[in-house]
Every structure is written in structure tokens, then in C-alpha cells.
Design brief:
There is one protein chain. With 273 residues, the protein is of the alpha/beta class. It has ten helices and nine strands. The protein folds into two domains: 169 residues, HUPs (Rossmann fold, 3-Layer(aba) Sandwich); 79 residues, 2-Layer Sandwich (Pantoate--beta-alanine Ligase, Chain: A,domain 2). Strands 1-4-3-2-5-6 form a six-stranded parallel sheet, with helices on both faces. Strands 7-8-9 form a three-stranded antiparallel sheet, covered by helices on one side. Strand 8 and strand 9 form a beta hairpin. The longest helix is centred in the last third of the chain and has 22 residues. The protein binds adenosine monophosphate (AMP).
Length: 273
């Protein structure tokens, strides 16, 4: 595995190669969720590139940019063992200049839900992903459904800017008890981790109701609220694939999303139905 910190050097190296390039952008502190994305990329491509970059422009003032878990050595090892060919490990100085242009995410998909409590977050995400796509020029790029809104916006960016890359969505990887894997789970104490399980229980509860043909989203939300007590719930939302709120579940076209705080840790999870 080759490690690059310089975007131009990586760009030049990759330009000289033949074959499909599978790309997995991450912020590091790699877990089984990331490894699953890497495995998918490994299975479907000649070359696999992983980036690790804690992107400052997607963090808002007061968020966990400084304390975000950083595990360079362990991450490097995981990438090596997972068959990654190129690890891109830039810093903010090489990724950003001063007074730069950036991508402005659209209102409907980017200023609801995650974008409502984190205004500007998706501008930062899309800007860095566009930069990474231009550096790596992947044929395929892998993103987790765990970040459903991010995935929808990246798919839209690819369409809007006619980018030549196939976006491959990957199912959320969970612990055996249902907790969605996240780099931020390390912030949870063991009691908080128990509490955090209520998020996936609430999604399971919604699935059971839908299986019994309860499709009214207000009714399902009420039940989910009960399951989530006493968590500090930021939102429970039912949207269609365009991220418009819906009042009736549309089978095959609905995403149920939850954001909640467990202690000081903000967690998100969702379910595609
Ligand atoms: P992050 O390092 O949190 O920015 O995540 C990098 C990529 O891994 C994103 O596409 C995430 O959606 C994806 N990811 C994070 N957690 C999971 C998970 N539990 N299952 C599947 N993909 C995930």
C-alpha cells in the first residue's frame, strides 16, 4: 500500500494507471462500517483508494473537530490488511487555500434534518467530496446509507455536475445488538451505549408497525417517541427519496431518520423501507 499526503502527487500517480478505481472517502477512526465499504470497493475494482481526512469545513463552530477521534497508525494497518492500494492522508493546508469557492448545497435536501441543526455542514461535505473526486477520479465511489442525507446530496451533485463516477450505496453495518457503528460511539460510556440502543429499537418498532400495515407517519412517530424516552430527540422524520416529508409511508420510497443526543454525543440512524 502506498500512502500519499500530497494531492497533486496522488493525482499524477493515479492518472498513469489502467483499470477501475474504487474510492472510499472517510474521516478515519475506521470501524467495521468503513471496512465493509472498503471490501465492496475491493470486490468491484482493480484499484482501491481510501482517503482519511477530518474535513474542517463540515464541522460547525462548537462541534467536535478538535476532539474527533484520530487513529492514524491503527487506520493505516486496517487499510493495509483490507487490501487498499492507495491511502490518501492529506491535511487541511494542502486541501484548502484562502478565500476559496465552494459548493452551495440546495435548500430542500441540505437545509432540512441534519442541515437544519448543522447549517452549512453539507456545503463542506460536498466541497471536500468534489475535491477528492477530482484528485482520485474514481470510477466507483462508496458511501454508507448510515448518512442517508449525505448520500442523497452526493448523488445529486454527481447528476448536477455530470461527474463521471458511479455512486455505490452500502447498507448500514450494526453491532449484533443493533447499534449502528459510528466513529462517535467511542464517546459513549457503557450506560450511554445502553441508552443509545433505543435509537435502533425505535427503528425496529417502526418496521413492525409498517409490517402490520400502519402507514400513518404521525402514528408511528408517536410510538417511536415512547421507545426513545428519555433520550434528547432532535428529530424523527419520514421522508421520501427526495427528502420531502411524507404523511403516509410509501413502501420502497421512504427513509425514516432519527437524530438524538445521548449525553453529549449526537447520534444519527435511519432505515430505508
Ligand atoms: P465517516 O468516516 O463517518 O465520514 O464515514 C465514511 C463513510 O463510511 C461514509 O460514507 C459513511 O456513511 C460510512 N459509514 C459510517 N458508518 C457506517 C456504518 N455503520 N455502516 C456503513 N457505512 C458507514
Amino acid at each position: 500500500m502506498k500512502v500519499f499526503r500530497d494531492p497533486i502527487a496522488l493525482q499524477q500517480e493515479l492518472r498513469g494507471l489502467q483499470g477501475s478505481i474504487g474510492f472510499v472517502p472517510t474521516m478515519g477512526a475506521l470501524h467495521l462500517g468503513h471496512r465493509t465499504l472498503i471490501e465492496e470497493a475491493r470486490g468491484g475494482n482493480d484499484i482501491v483508494v481510501v482517503s482519511i481526512f477530518v474535513n474542517p469545513t463540515q464541522f460547525l463552530e462548537g462541534e467536535d473537530l478538535q476532539s474527533y477521534p484520530r487513529k492514524e497508525e491503527a487506520d493505516r494497518r486496517i487499510c493495509e490488511l483490507s487490501g487498499v492500494d492507495y491511502l490518501f492522508y492529506p491535511n487541511a493546508e494542502v486541501m484548502y487555500g484562502h478565500d476559496e469557492m465552494y459548493i452551495a448545497a440546495p435548500d430542500v435536501r441540505a437545509y432540512v434534518l441534519e442541515g437544519l441543526s448543522r447549517p452549512g455542514h453539507f456545503d463542506g461535505v460536498l466541497t471536500v467530496v468534489l475535491k477528492l473526486f477530482h484528485i482520485v477520479r474514481p470510477t466507483h465511489a462508496y458511501f454508507g446509507k448510515k448518512d442517508a442525507q449525505q448520500l442523497a446530496l452526493i448523488e445529486q451533485m454527481v447528476e448536477n455536475f455530470f461527474l463521471h463516477v458511479r455512486i455505490v450505496p452500502v447498507d448500514t453495518v450494526r453491532e449484533s445488538d443493533g447499534l449502528a457503528l459510528s466513529s462517535r460511539n467511542v464517546y459513549l460510556s457503557s450506560e450511554e451505549r445502553q441508552e443509545a440502543l433505543k435509537i435502533s429499537y425505535a427503528l425496529k418498532c417502526a418496521t413492525k408497525m409498517i409490517a402490520k400495515s400502519v402507514l400513518n407517519t404521525a402514528t408511528i412517530t408517536q410510538e417511536m417517541e415512547h421507545v426513545l424516552v428519555p433520550l434528547d430527540v432532535e428529530y424523527i422524520a419520514f421522508v421520501n427519496r427526495d427528502f420531502h416529508h411524507i404523511e403516509q409511508v410509501e413502501l420502497g420510497n421512504t427513509v425514516i431518520l432519527i437524530a438524538a443526543r445521548v449525553g453529549t454525543t449526537r447520534l444519527i440512524d435511519n432505515l430505508f423501507v
